[in-house]
Amino acid sequence: MSRAGKEKEREGEKLIVRNKRATFDYTLDDRFEAGLVLLGSEVKMLREGAAELTDSWCAIENGEVFLKGVNIPVMPGAAFGHEAKRPRKLLLHEAEIEAIRKGVEREGMTVIATRLYFKNGRVKAEIALAKGKKTVDKRESLKEKDAAREARAAIARARGGGDRGRSSAPRAARGEARPNPRRPE
């Protein structure tokens, strides 16, 4: 099952796609919910779950925010199709745009899309101010992820209770003697 399938869906939301590389490559800060200006064929392709956010980022141009690098495949047979990687306008309040602009200009952050989802029938994008991680930070993230995975596995083993601390290896491999099937007479 994909990670997107494991992620709990919020009330009235249906996840389309999640940017799995975002938390690995960046330290995420403030998050914003934005509407998208889309064409009909783009919405149809999103309903089929076809999109890719891996290389997506946002740019502020003339006081408006545009989502770039999102790949929504072209719909086959569409009379009025769309370009797969065209810039798409995001719908945000002026205060949110100003907060994003300040974060990018002053703090040297970038803006990336973390997920696309339907909310009450409308396509929404969650964008986040992000700061790029260095290689050392990425290694640390991997260590933390491995430790969390091992802890979950240990908890699952403890809850299972069936083996009571014994390994699932055969008795001979564990060095235990085979029980004598004969009864003493």
Structure description:
By secondary structure, the protein is an alpha+beta fold. The protein has a domain at 13-137: Small Protein B, Chain: A. The protein contains six helices and seven strands; from the N terminus they run αβαβαβββαββαα. Strands 1-6-7-2-5-4-3 form a seven-stranded antiparallel sheet. The longest helix has 26 residues, at 135-160. Keywords: Cytoplasm, RNA-binding. InterPro entries: SmpB (IPR023620), SsrA-bd_prot (IPR000037).
Primary descriptors:
seven-stranded antiparallel sheet, SsrA-bd_prot, RNA-binding, 185 residues, alpha+beta, Small Protein B, Chain: A
Helices and strands in order:
Layout lengths: L2 H4 L6 E6 L3 H4 E11 L3 H8 L9 E5 L2 E5 L19 E4 L2 H14 L2 E10 L2 E11 L2 H26 L10 H4 L11
Antiparallel strand pairs: 1-6, 2-5, 2-7, 3-4, 4-5, 6-7
Protein name: SsrA-binding protein
GO cellular component, one term: cytosol
Family: Belongs to the SmpB family.
